[in-house]
Amino acid sequence: KAGVTQTPRYLIKTRGQQVTLSCSPISGHRSVSWYQQTPGQGLQFLFEYFSETQRNKGNFPGRFSGRQFSNSRSEMNVSTLELGDSALYLCASSPGAGRAYGYTFGSGTRLTVV
Amino acid sequence: GQNIDQPTEMTATEGAIVQINCTYQTSGFNGLFWYQQHAGEAPTFLSYNVLDGLEEKGRFSSFLSRSKGYSYLLLKELQMKDSASYLCAGEGAAGNKLTFGGGTRVLVKP
């Protein structure tokens, strides 16, 4: 079965712009979570959606937001981009409660802010 | 909260064994995951421990002691393709939120 699909794979944006990233989870998975990965901070949790509701949120400013659609696809948006937002953004899909099922990650979107 | 610590880098020889340790603060914690990440690729699931003890999966084993806030990943019969970063991650009690350590880069030499 198809894995987790993230689009686009690469993105270059200018400071002050906004960006929308997309994640399609594994068919049947209802939970999508988002992470930011940078060399300095490692992998950090952004937020998690389940059945169109945000259940968990990490410690990121309000410029970072997300949503989930009825088909479980999720988008995250970053407004007023800063240079420090340059990172690999990963989404992870799980059936519901991750636990022993594990979380399956997509290949990520590499965002560069110039 | 959860602070998760693991060594930054380890080097080992092909065919050998390497043990990657992970320590964490235990509050609000459900279980512990190990992921492998090759450069430029997505993390892939290796193991999950929720009870104390050892879980074995082929060449990879993972151990957890909840009372000590300690886990390790054991890689046996190392192969060159095992050169990667290994990420220790705790799952929060509320579920579906992983807190990652900084990752351990393992370099396997011939």
Structure, explained:
The complex is a heterodimer of chains A (114) and B (110). Chain A is built from no helices and eleven strands. Chain A is mainly beta and 114 residues long. In chain A, strands 2, 4, 5, 6, 9, 10 and 11 form a seven-stranded mixed beta sheet that branches. In chain A, strand 7 and strand 8 form a beta hairpin. Chain A is globular. Chain B is 0% helix and 58% strand. By secondary structure, chain B is an all-beta fold. Chain B contains no helices and eleven strands. In chain B, strands 2, 4, 5, 9, 10 and 11 form a six-stranded mixed beta sheet that branches. In chain B, strands 1-3-8-7-6 form a five-stranded antiparallel beta sheet, with no helix packed on it. Chain B has strands at residues 4-5, 9-13, 18-24, 29-37, 44-49, 53-57, 60-65, 70-75, 84-92, 98-100, 104-109. The chains are: A mainly beta (114), B mainly beta (110). Chain A binds chain B through residues 4, 31, 33, 35, 42-45, 48, 50, 55-56, 58, 90, 92, 94, 97-100, 102-108, and chain B through 30-31, 33, 35, 41-45, 48, 50, 87, 89, 91-92, 94-103.
